[in-house]
Amino acid sequence: MSVETQKETLGFQTEVKQLLHLMIHSLYSNKEIFLRELISNASDAVDKLRFEALAKPELLEGGAELKIRVSFDKDAKTVTLEDNGIGMSRDDAVTHLGTIAKSGTADFMKHLSGDQKKDSHLIGQFGVGFYSAFIVADKVDVFSRRAGLAASEGVHWSSKGEGEFEIATVEKADRGTRIVLHLKSGEDEFADGWRLRNIIKKYSDHIALPIELPKEVAAVEGEEKPAVEWETVNRASALWTRPRTEVKDEEYQEFYKHVAHDFENPLSWSHNKVEGKLEYTSLLYVPTRAPFDLYQREAPKGLKLYVQRVFVMDQAESFLPLYLRFIKGVVDSNDLSLNVSREILQKDPIIDSMKSALTKRVLDMLEKLAKNEPEQYQGFWKNFGQVMKEGPAEDFANKEKIAGLLRFASTQGNDGEQVVGLADYLARAKEGQDKIYYLTGETYAQVKNSPHLEVFRKKGIEVLLLTDRIDEWLMSYLNDFDGKSFVDVARGDLDLGNLDSEEDKKAAEEVAKSKEGLVERLKTALGDSVAQVRVSHRLTDSPAILAIGEQDLGLQMRQILEASGQKVPDSKPIFEFNPAHPLIEKLDNEQSDERFGDLSHILFDQAALAAGDSLKDPAAYVRRLNKLLVELSV
After folding, report:
1. pTM higher than 0.85
2. Are residues 21 and 170 in the same domain?
3. 3-state DSSP call for residue 546?
4. pLDDT digits (tens, 9 = 90+) for 302-328
5. Are residues 200 and 304 in the same domain?
6. Are residues 199 and 137 in the same domain?
7. Shared-domain flag, residues 487 and 465
8. How far, in Å, are 290, 301, 494 from residue 295 at the CA level?
9. For site-directed labelling of 171, which of 137, 275, 405, 604 has its Cα 20 to 30 A away?
10. In angstroms, rounded to a whole number, what is the distance separating the alpha carbons of residues 38 and 32?
């Protein structure tokens, strides 16, 4: 190695310092994973070289035999991992090894609690493989040169993981990266061929290129030390190309950790080979936990794409719709050309066919999980439910299938837990019930106690309670499920159909007729505040509520549009009153027009508050209420 030049000392990004401390102190119980992470990174580097060499064969520099080598030195207490992949330039080393170049960093750090067990799970959600080297090493040296650069443009990166790193320019004859781990005191067990071999077989047997260890050759007395012989210790064949019957669950789980850069096992997976008109193999995984950047639409997503077992693209987004962006895995096609690009993928009809089939496969996998392991599915729903709710708007062809996977809270009393599926709801629906009833709102407490539910409680009809910000938007795309239409219980003129007896309907008509005078007085008193006034069929206990017009936006959608700066169309609520309530009876008997107006506006404002809305004129409400209280106390 030639003399180092342009040597400088730089500080780690603040998040890296915190992360290094976390890696060192939280993962002490599973130290051996450092080798799995470094081998995964090396495999990615080789994949990237393969891809770039399709367009620029000269990047192979005459060395097309791609491999990873792991060696050790017991005396020096070092473990060395070397690959002949794409390598790094000086700028690459600073960027990739000195910062966490991934969206969601700040959010990740915000969630660190200091609880080692919990925090180690967060590492898996974030994916930071290289830094795991510091679990067993007190110093790490990285020597690298990017393919295509001159030998004199090699880089030496070095750090003790304490807050800063050194970087210098060095001579490096071969492309690729060599990482030298200087083991901490007490970590000598890893400077051992047998130990390294077992770790590689355990975690990295699926890596689809040779991982080599020095072959132990006995020295002959009096002869020179023999040249190092290398032997491949992994199977070195692409796991997804093997028959499912030959792949163990543990192998599927380790392969997931490799492709997803996750520390936890996947929740479920599906391995499938398609033959016939189209030929491709897919291996799809559902993660156990959501990544921090799940809701950042520009974050990396998609499957690893291989064409005839040659890596072509990371994060190929064209094979699954956006609402399934959390799915990890690989797709290997025989029908695409090796020089495929993102632009070509977006226009290729083959991709549309594959996307349709892969989407159905994922939905089938989730259906199976929901049916066979409902508790596991509940864990999935907590992590990915809001993303799944994007599905009906994006994927019309699978709307019914997606709807069957949705989960909601309901009036059946599950403390706000979203555990009710639509099939379960219909299975316990009342005889003659031909609608699926729901109510949207800001919080579970608000919707659970909403006056809109009073008639449903009286008749024992279950209502779905929707409180996610996306829910009203979701329901605008869900018209029906299993032939039953959805009805917002706060919208329009409520019609319970067969659930109301003929006697009930006739009695309601008679009451409405008898209160026509009160309706006109209320219209006059409330004026432009309301679109309509009518007798309510919804109420049993409360004096009044506000209903939404059939074509009007609900409160959730109005708030979302207002928050995004969009103009919200004007609309006025419908004021409904309960003629049997004592307050309404007093109102009907009130002779003073001024007092009637004050009481009407108080009831209107109370109904708005009960619906979760804010008052247009809070001061006027307080003034009227105080005036009423004074009159009552006299």
Report:
1. no
2. yes
3. strand
4. 898 888 777 777 778 889 999 999 999
5. no
6. yes
7. yes
8. 10, 11, 36
9. 137
10. 11
- Sequence-distant (6+) residues with CB within 8 A of 73 are 80, 191
Specify whether 55 is located in the same domain as 179.
yes
Full domain range(s) for residue 624: 515-633
Single-letter amino acid, residue 80: T
Residue ranges with strand state E in 431-512: 435-440, 464-466, 480-481, 484-488
Q: Collect all residues with Cβ–Cβ distance below 8 Å to 310 and sequence separation of at least 6.
A: 50, 51, 54, 338
397: in domain: no
Residues 6+ apart with CB under 8 A from 509: none
With beta carbons less than 8 A apart as the criterion, state whether 532 and 492 touch.
Answer: no
Question: Distance between CA 606 and CA 451 in Å, rounded?
Answer: 11
Cβ 511 vs Cβ 579: under 8 Å: yes
Burial (0-12, 13-18, 19+ Cβ within 10 Å), 280: buried
Q: Is residue 533 part of a domain?
A: yes
Average pLDDT over residues 359-380: 95
Both 251 and 228 in a single domain?
Answer: no
Sheet strands side by side (includes 435-440): 409-410, 464-466, 435-440, 484-488, 480-481
pLDDT at position 12 over 70: yes
Say if residue 590's pLDDT is above 70: yes
And the tokens for 199? 């770790």
Residue 398 inside a domain? The answer is no
d(C-alpha 265, C-alpha 327), whole Å: 14
Domain shared by 276 and 342, yes or no? yes
CATH of the domain at 429: 3.40.50.11260
The total domain count for the chain is 4
Buried b (16+ CB within 10 A) or exposed e, 357-393: ebbebbbebbeebbeeeeeebbebbebbbbbbbbbbb
- Residue in this structure with the two tokens 């989407």, named with its chain if needed: 359
Q: Of 131, 127, 125, 183, which is closest to residue 12 (Cα–Cα)?
A: 131
Are 228 and 244 within one domain?
no
